[in-house]
Amino acid sequence: MTYFIVTITYILILAGIIIYKSKGVKNEEDFIVAGRNVPVYLLIGTLVTTWIGSGSLFGTAGLTFQVGFSELWFSLGAWIGILAVYFIAARVRRISQYTLTDLLEKRYSPLARLLGTLTIIVAYLIIAGYQFKGGGRFLSILTEGSVSVEQGTLITFLIIILFTVLAGMVSIVSIDIFNGIIMILAIVLAVPFAISGFGGWGNVVDTINEVSPNHLSLFEGHEPTWYIAIMLPTLMLLLSESSVYQKFSSAKDAKSARKAVMGMFIGVVGIEFLMCLLAVVGFAIYAHDPRFFLADGSVNAPMSEEIILRIGFEQLPVFVGSLLFAGGAAIILSTGNTFLIVTSTNFSRDILEKYFMKEMSEKTKLLVQRVSILLLGFVAYLIMTQFEEILSMAFISYTMIGAALAPPLLATFFWKRVTKQGGIASILAGMLSVVIIEVLNRSDVALDLGIISFPFDPKMVAIPALIASVTALIVVSLLTKPTAGERVAPFFEKE
Question: What kind and span of H or E run contains 448?
């Protein structure tokens, strides 16, 4: 009961903050980029909690339970991506567009913007969908099964929709500083208590060495291509993370955006390492628990994704476990809010406003944005029902965004020779390669094409997708006429 009371109380506090902040939303700029007046400390909080979502709490934790410390290669991709983003954060804020797709249009063409929008909408709806799925598991554990996973998923869907509709980006950045503090405090306390409760680090190591020694290694148990493939999705996603770019545009100025990136790096590295460590300890704790393994001895993947919450509910002192659950609620709500607002922004601005509803008042724009959140949230809910594992949803969505958008986006800042045709070809190649591979995998067709065969491991999809995107970008750009200087210049101005 204590877990339930603490979690619900925290959610109600967040709701109060959001309702209060929603009164200050007067126009589209307030709703989308929080009036471009977000200070550094709030921006750091919202950037960290955007990245550490259900994908981390469930998907990454489940991957750690399956492979051990080598999961850190998955996280390493994001850490490298954050450092790379540091060098373009100020440029993004200076250009002061609303969304990543604004940048694509400014550098390439309206068609590039449209294709980028469609890619983001599909991929981000998958990400929003697994926040609902994660919330369903969260509530089922919290209520000890009184609320089923399906009922919890519906409840999470309704809460996230309500939070997002009320105040948009204002609500997100307002609550994320609290979410970030709770999340960090919960993980920092959970790790030593979990280790101590199992008898110390020595017992953890001894147990894992008996069951699966490779879980303690960063470099053993996998083919070399596995490490590359596991790192690419998070690296490419971070480099083309539309919600991150949208939040750069929320910063007070370019200097603030750059400072926030370094704060994000420190926060994300710390939290992800501790979450990995906690899941490794969880593997030792539950190494002989039949709930986590199938009859053939392999890991029960969906169950493994609950490892951190199971530790919090079953292994930790009540005050630490309660804090961990409050942090879990923060993770799910913040990430769900962010990905719905970014998706609805792209849908309403890049499709509805641009092609169908060109003359709208500020009041109408806000209404359209909010209705878009409702409709797209429902679509995300339907997409979510087609998947069982959060991790598989993460790999598909991360790779789709990263392969389609990271190469043409980086080229806008680092390669003057890239052309609009090259950018368009890159987006199409990255997006379609992921879709085709997923369709062929779901068809259960055994197919060998020489360089690739099906069914294809979803964890490896980033390699062919990135190759297709970069090849299209370079080849088509070199075969087409260079872009006019006035279109290129804003992306290469000195700080």
Answer: strand 447-448
Return the higher-pLDDT residue of 108 and 43: 108
CATH code of residue 258 = 1.20.1730.10
Q: Name the more confident of 283 and 19.
A: 283
pLDDT tens by residue, 68-84 = 999 999 999 988 888 87
pTM value is 0.80
Q: Report helix, strand or coil for 299.
A: strand
Q: How many domains does the chain have?
A: 1
Does residue 361 fall inside a structural domain?
yes
Secondary element (H or E) of residue 349: none
- What digits encode the pLDDT tens for the residues 254-288? 677 677 778 888 888 888 999 999 999 999 999 99
Contact 309, 328 (CB under 8 A): yes
- Give the CB-side neighbour count of residue 69, counting CA atoms within 13 A: 13
- Rounded to 10 deg, the angle between the 362-384 and 110-142 helix axes is 60
Whether 106 is in a domain gets the answer yes
CA torsion sign for 386, 388, 390, 395 is negative
In a domain, 141, yes or no: yes
Cis peptide before 455 (omega within 30 of 0): yes
CB contact at 8 A, 99 and 346? yes
Instruction: Pull the structure tokens for residue 210.
Output: 């008996």
In a domain, 274, yes or no: yes
467 falls in which pLDDT band (50, 70, 90)? Answer: very high
Give residue 25's domain range. 2-388
Q: How far is CA 350 from the centre of its chain?
A: 21
